[in-house]
Specification:
Layout lengths: L4 E5 L6 H16 L5 E4 L9 E2 L2 E5 L7 E5 L2 H5 L1
Parallel strand pairs: 2-4
Antiparallel strand pairs: 1-5, 2-5, 3-4
Length: 78
């Protein structure tokens, strides 16, 4: 179960991989573990299910250009 995460905003024209790189680094520095899931606005959704080692999920609760990174221990066990 996911209880905490990191909300990241990047509205630049960079690729998703380039946007998520600094977010992953910040998450690791703050929580001491690499995130394994990323929620993003449905319009940002890509045709892939994973980017930079993060499983991608759509959420209409997030604004465009916002990313919510987290570590899901259940996903890690699977």
């Amino acid at each position: 179960m996911i209880k905490i995460g990191l909300l990241w905003h990047d509205s630049s024209k960079r690729s998703i991989e380039e946007k998520l790189g600094p977010a992953i680094e910040r998450y690791e520095a703050r929580f001491g573990v690499r995130p394994n899931v990323c929620y993003l606005h449905p319009e940002t959704r890509l045709d892939v299910e994973e980017v930079a080692g993060l499983a991608l999920f759509s959420s209409c609760r997030l604004l465009l250009n916002h990313f919510w990174l987290a570590f899901d221990s259940e996903a890690e066990a699977a």
